[in-house]
Amino acid sequence: MAVVTGLIMLENILQSLAAGLLIGAIYGLMCVGLALIFGVMRVINFAQGDFMMLGMYAAYYAFALFGVQALFGSTIGPYVAALLAAPLLFAVGYGVHWALVSRVTGTRTAGLDGDGHYAQLILTLGTALILQNGAMIVFGSYPVSVQTPLSVSAWEVGPLWDDYVSVFVNKARGIAALVSVATILLLARLIASSRLGKALRASADNPEAATYMGIDVQRSHRVAFALGTAITAVAGALLATNYPFHPYVGLEYVIVMYAGVVMGGMGSILGAFWGGMTIGVVQQMSTLILPTQLQNTAIFVIFLLIVFLRPQGFFGRVVERT
Amino acid sequence: MLRIAQLSAGYSGVPVLHDVSIEVEEGRFVAIVGPNGAGKTTLFKTISGTVAPMAGAITFGGVDLLAVPAHRRPHLGIAHVPEGRQVFPSLTVMENLEMGAYTEAGRIAWAETLERILEWFPVLGERRGQPAGTLSGGEQQMVAIGRGLASAPKLLMLDEPSMGLAPAIADFIFERLIEIRRQSRLTILLVEQRVAEALESADHSYVLEAGRVVLEGDNQELRADDRVRQAYLGM
């Protein structure tokens, strides 16, 4: 009997861990989008959660209204819609940077109060409010989600021990996590070895020297902002198959994103992924011992611990900035 | 090749340079010497476009440089090796050099220039995979110069390459510059506080004081000039 109780406990732990890893992969992707923007531009973007919300709606409308469901069916459709959200939100990010953010960042900040940081905070906060309330007017307040049969079916892993210890992996979340990891690997490769990626890193390291290399730093910033927006939007769209959302959903996640980015080490892309992953795992594991309402408390206890013990984050830069 | 005429420039409306005229002919090694705060770095930044001029004109190979945005100027063939090295600290040595070759000319000549850069500065080859921020000051200066050369420039602008370096390392950097110049016949514009070395290696020099050109001339002329001997050469 004691063995059975132990096995059930083990099963619960493994089940929570699996759920944490799956949701963590998506949180990780979300955080990577934010980290890219912060890492290259040193801009704190408060509207990141709302860009994510736009990504969710973009996927929702692409799926339900603009034929993605009809064309690809309900099984693959949601993922096609999620990937379609990327170019769309890339364009949104590009436009927002061009019209607004570029006015208070980069080379134009010389002479502005606090190097433009105050203006940046107010601008992105204002953008967030406009997006939230604009979305309320356009999309309405009724929560929606991308419907797929995959979100109500699961793969069974096990039983691992006689007839006991089976872990169920929700198919929709499983595929979402795989798409998320694939996106991050692709991005990491782009940043590490493409000409564009190196130019982005050079612009982040030293914008003035990058200009002397012939790199258009303003354009680097615009691409980073757009890319970061698109990445977070894809994460949102992947989340949209399992979680009903509404115009204010961004507020819930922007906190997760910031915690993840800080945990990973500000500006580190890979670190942001592991930060998001940690949050997902802590959040899901905490439900084993804490009531669900307290899962965010668990996240922030861990967050404070990590910041206290390792202020530079998991992957904080040890390289001195010259 | 580079012609600066009656240039005034500064920061937030306060001029640092007054009515500066300087000419660099193709194939020449021109030095600008002078004390701290004379406006040497401001002059370089105005040529590169990170400081906006208040008056005057700059042309490069007949092109009105002031009409070209800062990030396009390197593509015309101007390489700026900035004061204080300013390497990309988190990029590896090799990636730093690759960023130098961001210009089209640099990309085309990449294989050949890389080989020469590593010949001139073999230590960069040994450190190729290391983040540039972890190098010593002298090595970072070599990265900065290598990065400038990697763009396959027509004009190489060096802003105080000896700054903050141990004398032996500074001597080595100077010796390399003379060697690079001997082999490549590159046009060089050098800003330097080590006046004796600068006057020795350059063909033609300008003395900049408080934002004005107070003296100019060829190598021997300047070294024979009493004011230069007293103020800068300690003779």
TrEMBL record, chain B:
Sequence ranges assigned to domain ABC transporter in this UniProt record: 2-235
Keyword Hydrolase: no
Keyword list, A-Z: Amino-acid transport, ATP-binding, Nucleotide-binding, Transport
GO MF terms, alphabetically ordered: ATP binding
PROSITE patterns reported in the protein's UniProt record: ABC_TRANSPORTER_1, ABC_TRANSPORTER_2
Family, as annotated: Belongs to the ABC transporter superfamily.
Protein name: ABC transporter ATP-binding protein
Organism expressing this protein natively: Azospirillum oleiclasticum
